[in-house]
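chain below, 178 aa
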Amino acid sequence: MTPIAPPPGQSAPWRYWLPLPPRLGLPLGQISPDFALWDVTYRRTVRLANWRGKQPVVLAFCRLLTEVAYSPQRYASLVALNQAYEQFRNAGAEVLAIGNQPQRQTQAVIDDLGLTLPMLCDPTGAIFRAYHTGQALGAPLPAQFVLDAQGRLRYCHLFSLLHSDPRPAALLATLNKL
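prediction:
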């Protein structure tokens, strides 16, 4: 069954999850789980399967915290992806950022950081769980995935205190190898 997010303007209550480390629960080469989420940036529902057979996709799962001020320094990897968004598009790929906050709070992140890339909201965490990103302190952990044009997982970077999020150049290099 495909996880579907609540309609725009509605959000399921956030449930605090037990701590869970990230794990590579999806083998490389496997077709990634489909989903449909609301794109707050462009006000539309985005279904991952719509890119299958057409172009590669980079999924950037973002841990967004509303209790703190949004700043380029706090969300450096998200800002870097946004700055490189046209490079990804020119390479024939789409970038989909996925946040864990409801629509209104996701819109605040978009506005505060000046984001132009599609920012999807997954306030229930269903898609974070489907991709095994892990969770801590009541929120999912960040992760990045590169899917080829057929929707197969070709690259995965899970949260680690030892290894920061990959730079856009590393994700672009992975795309160039597809």
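The chain has a mean pLDDT of 86. The beta strands are 36-39, 44-47, 57-62, 94-99, 119-121, 135-136, 139-140, 143-147, 153-158.
thats it, cya
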